[in-house]
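Deliverable D4.2, example record:
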Amino acid sequence: MDGHNPQFDMILIEAVKQTIGPIAHMDKQYSGEQIQKMVLDYAGRAAKRKASVKAWTEVASDFTYSFFESLWKVFGESAWLDQVDFTWVVATAFRNFLSRPEIMTIPDEEFNQVFMKETALGLDCSRYYSWAAYVLKKIITGKASQKKVRDAVDNSREELLKQSIDTADAFVTAWITGTVKALGKDIGNVLPKATALNLFQSLVKEGGGIPLWLMNAANTSPECKSVLNEVETTINTLYADIPEDNWGGGGGGGKGAAKGFGGFGAAQPQWGAMPQFGGCAGGAWPGMGMGMMGYSPY
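Output generated by the structure prediction step:
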């Protein structure tokens, strides 16, 4: 491709090798060499799809999200995926495949911060938009109610990713508060109290609702007890002002079935503290939902 920089070929190969090597034994279907080959291929294809004349930061965002679309398609349910930090791989692949003269003048710290942000968001968006859709559909009945609740839940979460929120507890409190506010007078019909409690507890446990970097920072247990307690407290507080006779039945019942992971790990090299993010929809996936497209593995 036009932006290919052979100078980074061997660096990219080494980055993939060091990133995948520590977790290769955990995959039951593919060998380490196969995974490395697939990662390199997905990076190359993402670069071909997202090459453009847009600002380099926009291209970086589009490229990173496209890379994770392909990666998630194959490895989304693999237990090792959330233990790997692909920042080094994604940043080097960008330099390798989408090089521009001005990129070489950008300070390393600025460049690396951009890719730390985009890499974390790329995995978060794959994780959340895959699992949360299943959870919500099982708990909220009726297409109209599903759409209203999904829009409120997703849009509220997007806004929070742009803010400085330091803990998982604070994130879930703000998330529920934003959702209830967005639903307004429809809250009683589409998301009654019992359904709201079931939904947000399931989103935390099974829907990838809390960003991995916040879960890891809090050393949150797989049971997410602190966060789940915060969910219950917040909903009890918010629904205290909603008369019980307004708690309609439109929300439905049931339990989410998607599988959740924990922990945000890191591979070499490590590039400092996690920066503030800008939201999943800022990249290549506005309205992505369940429509992610991947590529067949070797």
